[in-house]
What does this fold into?
Amino acid sequence: RFLKENVLEVKTAELKGGEAHLFVREDGCMNFDVFRTDTSQDSSSVFPLEWLSAEKVLVEHLHLCYTDETSHRQVEVEDLSTRAKLGMSGDELDANVRLNMDGLSFQQEDSTSLRAELKNVELHVKGSRDGSDIAGNLQLNLPWVQLEADSTLWVDSSHIRLDIPLTYNLDSALLRLNGAAVGVDGVVMDLKGNVRIADTAYSVFDC
It folds into this structure.
């Protein structure tokens, strides 16, 4: 169906073991920028397929590292395992992800270093796009979280839940939380409000 209907359906994709090091150089070039610029006149959709689905994506014991020389930032996961199901088009997204992260660390120059352990994480993302408006819901369940900041333990074996209905406008960069709920060990907080996200995007197509 890929050639005739522009549809890609994946039954199973598995990656067991291995290492991946993603980096961005000081000039903005990336070692994972593998797509060419779309020079066609039709720019109505940023997604090249009518539909992409993956019934089962399985990753086991992957060592992942991301280094960004433009922001002097590094993120590393010593052991990542995940299982995902995905459906996506130019206007819709529906994804379910389960994962474990051992040895998750974040470091940035002249900033606090963070280290975390995440077990049995469940993530569900569903959304749609209408022109410049994106609407959706993000549900995140973290049954077991441990967090250290500069070697000081701040969160120990906590249960965290997020339920975030949101809308986002691409033109104004305005993110609106529509009654989001954040729960920590049974204590729930409701969040409402707007956030305007600064434009930090840059083009790397000419690298």
Observations:
- DSSP finds one helix and ten strands in the chain.
